[in-house]
Amino acid sequence: MEISKKQISFLITHYNRPDDLLQCLTAIKSLDVANSEIVVCDDASLDKHLETIQNYAIDQLLLSEINQGLAANINKGIKACQGEYIIYCQEDFLLAPQISSILSECLDLLKQEKVDMIRFTSNSPFNTLIPLTATISLIPKFSFQNFFLNYYQYSDHPFVTRKSFYHRFGTYLEQTSGRYGETEYAIRILKSNAKIGITNQRLASTIEGSQSVLVNESIAANNVYPLNKKWIKIARAFRLYLELFLYNTHKRGLITYTNFRK
Q: Which GO molecular function entries does the Swiss-Prot or TrEMBL record give (predicted)?
């Protein structure tokens, strides 16, 4: 697929999962997007994994001397991206071939500022969306039908945006554990006027058998809670609305979450 006079940066964050990274790269290259580059940002993986990924066909491979966490890793990659548009993808995701057929449409919507970011997937479907095209919808800023999902407008699952998005809405809060950093940024985006879109069809999927590094960030993350899922869902929603109410865009940070990197 050729996109005239537009350059795309595929940004992939990586940490100790070279096999997943290879699958992710293969899926991206099969999209055949012209005027593009692949930027892989590694967060101090083990030497044996670095030796492996240095043999992969990557335009820019950014390395770190010490592990700084996902937020710092994304920020470093954003700075290095040369494209006007960034397609972000963690190494444990595969982008679907159908992205090739709608990418021009995504970029047009971003250029026209009808959306500021377009997600390619969501773990849970939003009950209410505002159609923009036959393939892309806008997530309402607030909807009672999306009461349990309003705060999930942003996710670090694969998406496309303009590089200027981060000048307008800020980059990621560094020195944070993965779950804390993602939640903080999600609250930040919900508090802003950023317009987040999503494809009507899931166009990204996790690699089967891949284990998220978030699972091992804390002992608490592995606990089995006695409450049923319904009550957990309700409690989580009110907790995040409280975070939204208390959130300070200048001081940043969360009140009821623990940052395991501090």
A: glycosyltransferase activity
Query: Is this structure's pTM higher than 0.70?
Result: yes
Domains and CATH numbers, the chain: 8-209+220-246 (3.90.550.10)
Q: Report whether 173 contacts 185 (CB < 8 A).
A: yes
The model's confidence at residue 221, banded by pLDDT at 50, 70 and 90, is: very low
- The tokens for 186 are 């999600």
Rounded-to-integer distance, Cα 107 and Cα 115, Å: 10
**What is the model's pLDDT at position 213?**
57
With the CA atoms of 71, 57, 157 and 109 taken in that order, what torsion angle do they form, in degrees rounded to the nearest 10? 110
Surface-to-core class of residue 178, CB atoms within 10 Å of its CB (0-12 exposed, 13-18 middle, 19+ buried): buried
